[in-house]
Amino acid sequence: MKSRTQRKLFIVAVLIGITVAGFLTYRALQENLLYFFSPTQVAAGEAPQRNFRLGGMVLAGSVKRETGTLNVSFVVTDNVHSVPVKYNRVLPDLFREGAGAVVVGRMGDNGEFLADEVIAKHDENYMPPEVAEALEKARAAQNQ
Amino acid sequence: MIPEFGQLALALALCLALVQATVPLFGAARGRADWMALARPAAAGQFVFVAIAFGALEYALLTDDFSVSFVASHSNSALPDFYKATAAWGGHEGSMLLWITVLAVWTMAVAAGSRSQPQEFASRVLGVLGIVSAGIIAFALLTSNPFTRLIPAPADGNDLNPLLQDPGMIIHPPTLYLGYVGVAVPFAFAVAALLTGRLDKDWARWTRPWTIVAWMFLTAGITLGSWWAYYELGWGGWWFWDPVENSSFMPWLMTTALLHSLAVTERRGIFKSWTVLLAIAAFSLSLFGTFLTRSPVMISVHAFAADPTRGLFILGLLGLFSGGALALYAARARNFEAEGGFKLVSREAFLLANNLLLVIAAGVVLVGTLAPLFVDVLGFGTISVGPPYFNLMFLVPVLPLVVLLGMGMHVAWRSMPGDALLRRLRWPAAAAVVVGIAAPLIFFGTASVLTVLAISIALWVCASSLLDPVRRLVFRTGAPLTRGQVGMYLAHFGVGVFMLGATVASAYKVELDVSARPGDTVTAGGYEFVFKDVRKLEGPNFVADEGEFELRDAGTLVAVLTPQIRTYQVQREPMTEAAIDTNVVRDVFVALGEPLGDNAWSLRLQVKPLIGFLWLGSGLMVLGGLFAITDRRYRAAVRQTQQAAAQPATGTA
Fold first, then answer.
1. Other Cβ atoms within 10 Å of B396 Cβ, number
2. In this complex, do B384 and A91 lie within 8 Å of one another by their Cβ atoms?
3. pLDDT tens across B363-377, in order?
4. Burial readout A94-129 (b: 16 or more C-beta within 10 A, e: otherwise)
5. Which residues contact A139 (CB under 8 A, 6 or more apart)?
6. Pair A43, A2 in one domain
7. What is the pTM of this model?
């Protein structure tokens, strides 16, 4: 009989453990999720105050440097709406005009996106799927 | 013609794999020795044809046969021969052929190494490996044929991705695959045990060395990948919690749990069902990793251009292999009775905790990896899970895991008085805490609670692992250590060293992005970086700008660093080649970015204390595995069963 009580206690302890672990995981996930927004969504005011990911094409001719410093600005577009982006760290190797890019950061006060991180991919032919989807959505919305 | 021979060889290999997958298994079920005897020749034949197929792909690459689609998209006539050969695993189709080749190598090794085991059991193991092999070869032939022709052939190839033109890329994928695919061996042993209904200490003793070898390759492969990312991706990170990294890390965590669980089964004849489940889970996660890498569901820096049919195919194989094994488990598991019990303070209990915590850690990684997928499918938007989630949640199971690890090594099997354990370990524990608080304050001036905790725990494992070896080697007391014990202490010492490196390198790294002109001196992390010059340079298939930096410590020259930014001629992409000065206690890292106009360049300067401990710690873990598999009991066991097998068969139950 004793072993059966022990087993029940053990099962209850495991269940409590799983519940606590699940709750902690949920909280940690919630705080560290980065949502993705396209320039069209940003233009519609859907973007949050906190950090998020912005993706689209780097508009050709939009990359401007402050000569001799790391400060750089460029425009991310889904060919319908555009968001100006500011960044002041080293750009990744595969960053270039006319290619897809994902930037992580938040909106500044004057409608500029302040990027902490610019993400580029291993493969230069590879388009981040969420960027491809955003471009497709924007194009479809415009054609209607 | 050669590529067609390759394809034909692969098709023949599939036929032999199907033979290997069916006849020996039926033979074992019916007790037909002649059918079972077919397992080894079928495996050998399969190996030969797979080797021919792999050779054919290498031939096409080395002879610049751009009429083969794979060669045209992953190689180029200007590519050095070295990289032409390794381009075989620079893309999806070739990677799958490598997967198949590696499995054939493992199958051959098992065929040779299982001669001392009962024929019925060995045939089943080889039969299960045949099923896996047949599935993957069919996958390659139907969805990812490396020999597909491209008509008309282009004049030259698209070149190998410049990131992959690196010595690290030559050894990282094959090593990782040897581990990744090697997990199929314990899986096959587990399924064979379920089929035979025999799961005892002997079974665990046969399975464990294979598991350790697969684990060693997995450890080495992941470490090489991390090291490659550190110096080649250019920006000094060593782990990104990227889905593809995670998909090799989850099988690692499960295999680590498995080899500890096998220790209990081998020694005490308990944890049987659990061990079998872990073997199934480890292999399922390794296949699942293949699915993640090969399908478009994941956003990853590794993602090759992906194709949904491939993902579905692998998911189908995963369902077949894991589902089949689990169904078998459900039908047979009740037959496996434990041969003994254990108390709360016992080696068994600590290993149970090890297993639970490792599985939780794998669960944490799995949840973080899959969360974006589920959120997307449920229509809640596109998200990504940032490294902060992993960095935080991973520590929750791992910190207690490592604390218990330091104790578990000194606990006796079955039961042990708790106060005896405490008496034994109080001095190393106290020393670890004191040094863990003092050292960061002395060397770095500041320390967060988490940093002190992690450093103390790392030192605690190091100290605890050294206890017995020091007692034996320095004070000449205690029993001589077996190779298995030496392996255990070495590997666990490696865990401590790794953790120390990971903690210190993350907590005390100095990272600075600056703009500078030749002639400038920039100070970072206590070093002066004197920017001398940037000049043009020409490599075999690239041109580069090479910066020259003098690294000075209080004026004294430490090293001259020459980071490059390369532009490869075919793919026209710039690529950063960082320059790193390494010594025992720190790396100094300089990467040259892009010209900023007005003669200025962007630079990233980093000083990473103790980062070398990461690679050192992993190396010690692998070395520990090497000691463990050369333990006397495995060699003695082989001799013993060989003698037994030499006598007339007296039944295998």
1. 17
2. no
3. 999 988 888 877 777
4. bbbeebbbbbbbebeeeeebebeebbbbbbeebbbb
5. A79, A80
6. no
7. 0.91
**Quick one: what percent of chain B has pLDDT higher than 70?**
95
Question: What is the CATH classification number for the domain harbouring A75?
Answer: 2.40.50.140
Q: Using CA of residue A30, residue A33, residue A39, residue A40, what is the dihedral sign?
A: negative
B515 and A93 in contact by Cβ < 8 A? no
Taking a C-beta distance cutoff of 8 angstroms, is the pair B576, B586 a contact?
Answer: no
- Partner-chain contact A29 B573, CB within 8 Å: no
Judge: A90–B235 Cβ closer than 8 Å, yes or no.
Answer: yes
| Residue B381 near chain A (CB below 8 Å) | yes
Provide the residue range defining the domain that includes A52.
36-143
Q: State the Cα angle at B168 between B572 and B215, rounded to 5°.
A: 140
How many independent structural domains does chain A possess? 2
End-to-end CA distance of chain A: 72
B576 CB neighbours in chain A (<8 A) are: 93
**Judgement on whether residues A129 and A85 belong to the same structural domain of the protein:** yes
> ∠ at Cα B626 (B620, B632), nearest 5°?
135
Q: CA neighbours within 13 Å on the CB side: how many for B578?
A: 26
Reduced to 3 states (helix: H, G, I; strand: E, B; else coil), residue A90 is: coil
- Stretches where chain A sits below pLDDT 70 are 1-3, 120-129, 144
| pLDDT tens digits, one per residue of A121-143 | 644 445 666 777 777 777 777 77
- The residues, ordered by sequence, that sit 6+ positions from B595 with a Cβ below 8 Å of its Cβ are B545, B601
* Residue B105 to chain A, least CA–CA distance (Å): 30
B393 — contact with chain A (CB < 8 Å)?
A: yes
**Token pair in block for residue B437:** 């608080």
| pLDDT given for residue B640 in this prediction | 60
Q: Do A50 and A13 fall within a single domain?
A: no
Q: A48 with A72, same domain?
A: yes
Q: Is A92 found in the same domain as A28?
A: no
Closest CA to B13 of B115, B75, B100: B100
Q: Are B146 and B50 in contact (CB under 8 A)?
A: no
Same domain, A13 and A52: no
What is the block-wise mean pLDDT of chain B (653 residues), using blocks of 10 residues?
94 97 94 93 96 97 94 90 91 91 97 91 96 95 92 86 80 92 96 91 94 97 91 79 88 96 92 93 91 60 55 86 93 78 88 93 91 77 82 90 94 89 92 95 91 96 94 86 94 97 94 92 93 91 92 93 88 84 92 87 93 96 96 72 52 37
Shortest CA distance from B567: residue in chain A: A93
Nearest in space to B513 (alpha carbons), one of A83, A97, A91:
A91
Segment B310-335, tens digit of pLDDT: 778 888 899 999 999 999 999 887 77
Q: A71 and A28 in one domain?
A: no
